[in-house]
Structures are given as C-alpha cells and as structure tokens.
Amino acid sequence: MFSYHKLIPQFDIDSLINASSYHMTPKFEGFGESHNFWELVYCDKGEVLVQAADNHRILKAGEMVFHCPNEWHDLRCSGSKPADAIILAFTCESPYMSMFEQKVLFLGPREKECLRSIVEESEASYAYFDIDPPYVNLSRKDNAPFASDQVIKSQLELLLIYIARGNQEMLTSPYEISTNIMHQHERLAEEAKEYMQMHLNEKVSLKDIASSLGISISLLKRVFREQSGSSVISYLTNMKISEAKRLIRSNAMNFTQISESLGYDNIHYFSSQFKKQTGMTPTEYARSVRK
What distance in Å separates the CA atoms of residue 59 and residue 112, rounded to the nearest whole number? Predict the structure, then answer.
C-alpha cells in the first residue's frame, strides 16, 4: 500500500511583474508609487534611501525591505556615491505574507543565491521596456530557457521560505533617515525659499527654481513639501500676496503696478489670486487697512 500526501505550499507566487537589477547614480530619483502587488528592494552595493508612507530608512548593502500591496513607497540614492539595487515585484495571496509587512532584513548566503538566480533567469527570459516610468513591462523572449517561469517561481518561493524560517533575525527597528540626508533636505528647502524671495518680482517657474539648485523638479517638489508642508507654488503665491499686501498698505503704487512688480501677467489674474488667498479683492483689502 502506498499513501499519497498532497503537497500544500505556504507561498504560491501567482505572477511576476519585475525581477531586475539597477545601477543608480547619485542623482537617481525614484518615482513614488503604490500598486496592488508586493515589492522587495534589495541593496546590493552602496546605500539607498527608501521611503514608505511617512517613514524613511537607509538600506545598506545586504539589506532588503518589503513593500506590501497599496503601500506608497519611493527609492533613491542616499548620498554622493552610486548604488546597486535589485527589485522583485510579484503577486502572492498567501496569508503568511503578512509577516513581511514593513520588515527589513539582512540576507544570508542562501537568500542571496536565490535572489541572484531569480534575476539571472528573469533577464534571460524577458525583455524589459518602459511605457511610462517607473512602470516596468515584461515581454517574453522567443529563446527563453525551457521552464524558466517555473525556475523563477520556485526560487522566489524558496527565498520567501528561507526568510520566513529565519524571521527572528529580521530587523524590526523603525525606518530612519540619516541626519546628513535631513540636513541636505533642509538646506535645499531654504535655498528654494531664498531664490523665490530674490526673484519675487519675476514670473518664476518650478524649472527655474530646480535649475538654480541643481536638482530635478520632482526632487524639488518632494523635498519642499517634506520640509515645509506646502507645495512650492502655494508657498510662492503666499509670498507674492504677502508682498502685495505690504505694497497696498504703503500706498506707493496702484494695483496694476503692484501686479506687474510681482511678475503677474495681468491685473485680473493678480486680483483672483489675491482674493483666493485673503478672501478680499485688492480694493476691499485697501479699504480695510485705511479705515
């Protein structure tokens, strides 16, 4: 007599979205995103800064972070040196995946070997192309190795098993952002404010401000909101309207002259912005301060 034992998997990977390695220059910036699948980010060399919701952490070489479905996250270099990272993205409905939520861990030799195998098999089997970064789209190669999908699936499931078995070694400390990075962000936000103040009489764009700081528009917007709680445009508008109020109180210029001195294209747009910020038209404000 023989008994047949049904094999019950604890992790069943349904589909693969991404399994690739990235070389990131110091100026590399992520595209903050959220999606309905799991994503693992492994730092292979250097240091990378990962963000999940309002939390930050510096990942050092050998460390991996889990991003659960629908969790907003971002990735970029953490300093002045380049870094290498591996990203795996996949779907898995296993209830055991919950043990990985917001976890960071240091990979051992077995886990690293699984990771390398997954990336190598994926790169041999799929061509990668971008439709709209950061979205990665896989196109299966005609000469993909036999049963490559099964190799990727089994190696990825094995990676999760190894991690789950050694979960007592996982790092449970909260995400942390280095003091150096925080100081850099504070300085960038302050320099952006100084630039806006110095060019208050001009029509300033996000591109102008970002170029003056030597950074991209996306980084400017992210850092400025992080440091000030406001968008760049909202902050600039508030500065202009505050100056307009000062000029109205001084009674040295008429409204058209004030509008032109603050870089507005026409008096009508200036008036609409003024009322939006203060709840009064320029005329109403002038009357209120001269009573």
Answer: 16
* β strands within the chain, DSSP E: 13-24, 38-45, 47-52, 55-60, 63-67, 73-77, 83-92, 104-106, 126-130, 136-140
- Residues with Cβ within 8 Å of 90's Cβ and at least 6 positions away in sequence, in order, are 13, 14, 15, 16, 17, 19, 37, 38, 156
**Cβ–Cβ < 8 Å for 65, 87:** no
d(CA 207, CA 274): 24
Q: How many Cα atoms within 13 Å fall on the side-chain side of residue 241? A: 21
C-alpha distances (whole Å) from 113 to each of 77, 109, 155, 250 are 24, 6, 9, 72
Q: Could you give the 3-state DSSP secondary structure of residue 138?
A: strand
At residue 134 the predicted structure's pLDDT band, cuts being 50, 70 and 90, is low
Q: Which amino acid is at 185?
A: H
Closest by CA position to 117, among listed 79, 157, 84, 77: 157
Instruction: Read off φ and ψ for residue 71, nearest 5 degrees.
Output: -95, 120
pLDDT tens-digit series, residues 88-128: 999 999 999 988 887 888 888 889 999 999 999 999 999 87
Contact 48, 116 (CB under 8 A): no
Please state whether the predicted TM-score (pTM) of the whole model is above 0.85.
no
- Tracing tokens 């445009």 back to the chain, one arrives at 233
The amino acid present at 80, given as its one-letter code, is S
Helix (H) or strand (E) holding 12: none
